[in-house]
Design goal:
Blueprint: H1 2-20, H2 67-71, H3 80-93, H4 95-98, H5 136-145, E1 146-147, E2 150-151, H6 159-171
Antiparallel strand pairs: 1-2
Length: 181
């Protein structure tokens, strides 16, 4: 009798092991390999609808070199409050590369210590300032979207803060707009 029970248990184990090698977990036996999904290179992302602006305020045709970008004008009144806000934002975000007065020599872009900054940031004031040749829209879109090695700050500031920086830059020596590009 004990041998019969042992044989029954052994046959149960053998049957159980043979069944466990096949997936018998219906309806959960769909393998992830068989699941329907898109790979990143197999589908196109949705485009931004006409007239919509994304969360980080990037919009199509908002390039600083386009006529639309050049035509942008500061929608906020230039006053002492805007200039003070712009100075605070400039000191927070811009002085590390452009220097305190926008004349370079800042710690990030200083090549005198032997490090090689790929492209020096432009002079924003003084002799050789490029801002006199740039429209307000060009400066605003550069701050918002970035340029060359400069990252954009559209995610860090809102529109009035970026326009305030443009207002502050215009108060620097040699930075008044002369109708250039």
């Amino acid at each position: 009798m004990a041998n019969l029970r042992l044989a029954a248990r052994a046959s149960t184990v053998v049957v159980g092991l043979s069944l466990s090698s096949t997936a018998m977990a219906l309806p959960w036996d769909i393998d992830m390999v068989d699941a329907y999904f898109y790979r990143g290179y197999e589908w196109n992302m949705m485009t931004v609808p006409e007239g919509a602006v994304s969360i980080n305020r990037w919009a199509p045709n908002s390039d600083r070199m386009t006529p639309e970008g050049q035509a942008l004008r500061n929608p906020y009144p230039v006053n002492t409050t805007a200039v003070a806000t712009g100075e605070q934002m400039f000191n927070t975000y811009c002085t590390a590369c452009h220097g305190v007065e926008g004349q370079g020599g800042a710690p990030v872009a200083d090549n005198t210590s032997g490090k090689r900054y790929p492209i020096l940031p432009p002079m924003l004031s003084g002799d050789g300032a490029v801002t006199a040749l740039r429209s307000d829209g060009y400066l605003y879109l550069t701050i918002r979207n970035g340029a060359a090695v400069m990252s954009g700050y559209g995610q860090a500031m809102d529109d009035d803060e970026m326009w305030a920086i443009v207002s502050y830059i215009r108060t620097l020596d040699g930075a008044a707009y002369s109708g250039g590009l």
